[in-house]
Amino acid sequence: MIKRRIFCGSALAAMATAALPVSRLMAAAAAPISNDIAAINGAGRQILLTRSDIEDLRAALRGALLLPGDEGYDRARRIWNGAFDRRPALIARCSGGADVIQAVNFGRAHDLLVAVRGGGHSFSGQSVCEGGLMIDLSPMKSIRVDPVGKIARLEPGVLLNEFDREAQAFGLATTAGTISHTGVAGLTLGGGFGRLCRKYGLACDNLRSVDLVAANGQFLRTSAGENPDLFWGVRGGGGNFGVVTSFEFQLHAVTSTLLGGVLIFPLAQARDVLDFFAGFASNAPDELNTDVLLTTLPDGQRVVLIDVCWCGSFESGERALKPLRQFRKSLEDTIAPTPYVRLQSSGDTDYPIGRRYYFKSGFVGHLDRTLIDEMVSRFESSPLSSLTVVFVHHGGAVGRVPRDATAFWHRDAGHSVILESSWDDPLDAESNTEWVRSTWRTLEPFTDGFYVNELAPDETERRIRANYGANYDRLVGLKSKFDSNNLFRMNANVKPPGLTPPT
User: Fold this and answer.
1) Are 160 and 142 in contact (CB under 8 A)?
2) Bridge partners, residue 94, by sequence
3) Would you tell me which CATH number, out of the four given (3.40.50.620, 3.30.1370.10, 1.20.58.1190, 3.40.462.20), belongs to the domain 257-461?
4) What is the sign, positive or negative, of the torsion defined by CA atoms of 245, 94, 91, 453?
5) pLDDT interval class at 342 (50, 70, 90)
6) What is the pTM of this model?
């Protein structure tokens, strides 16, 4: 009863609109709650949520509160990475900021394990939890583009393809990932690489402001002029400090058609291609984004593939790409004027929703021959057909932002190297994950930190801490100020003082 009074009192003080009659009517129409419900708290221990407390939360939400067995529950708990089949005790399907405040207050009052889902594209599965409270932001889909001011305001349930299409209607865009069914929220809070980042910086570099609900249920607006310390932290610090309910982005003039496509070479040429790419990429203009993949085509052929996007004029792009297209004869060359939104979705079929995935990644300063030889050898020798090694092109505008200007530290990385495995049959999990782990032991000595949006489910706390470099202590201070009890822990977690230190 004490926890119920705490929740009800804080919720009513925070947002009186939660008591609107429509919410009461929705709660009355929902299936009745017949029993108390077992749940998991933040420390991993089982607790009981009383029927009356759950009924109070359901009545307070404008959106739906889903319990196991409710219609829509199984659909809502599914995320992009099908390797995670978790069952939250409660799913709060938030319709707006008021619902987010209610859900956060409930999670805090009951000390629940809390997961926050935006687009649900978490590599490490942390947008859904087992036995806790899932705060589901996917119904929050508002997008508003100001074409005169070149500004977009959007809610955290928006996916990249939705954002790109809305902005492109006005000939605008900003850095927005490479897989179109990724969520804008998670991508941006972790940094946000994409096909335009070498020209316009990371997604988080293009943020003008965010609205956020902190762990105490307080609604905060953050920008360079309001709560600037928190604004610094959300740009690369992930979901450590609260639930973002609105993003404001700076947009840029980007024509609807860009020069893009792929070059495909036989795997036998992989070392030569990567050697050439290492030098070519280091001197590339900002308008050029090129990623190299060691991968397997649908027909079973193993190849090296270069994914290209040029965001300048076609004439200058043809000149810049000429050395890349002529140093070896490719098996296939699809580079041509292509709609930007089509380029943004070109990798979707390779990363379908619901497949099982396992990743490891790290930043590298440059691609030396030893690293290239090791990765090609490991890929060539594997009997598995669903493996990919990706060499992601960084630099350009990303590297010109000071490392302490945002929470994102690794501005000087020339590339990321990502090891990926995917499978459909659960029986294939061990062989796929073991290849990534064993290959990672070879790759890790070449790396310095990793992209937090590519967090692996078994990442060590020490590596997370090292990833933020000299920014880590400042992040700890923010965590202590805005989430001292670590309510938001399902992320690349920055632990507040007093909790177990990294091991």
Assistant:
1) no
2) none
3) 3.40.462.20
4) negative
5) very high
6) 0.92
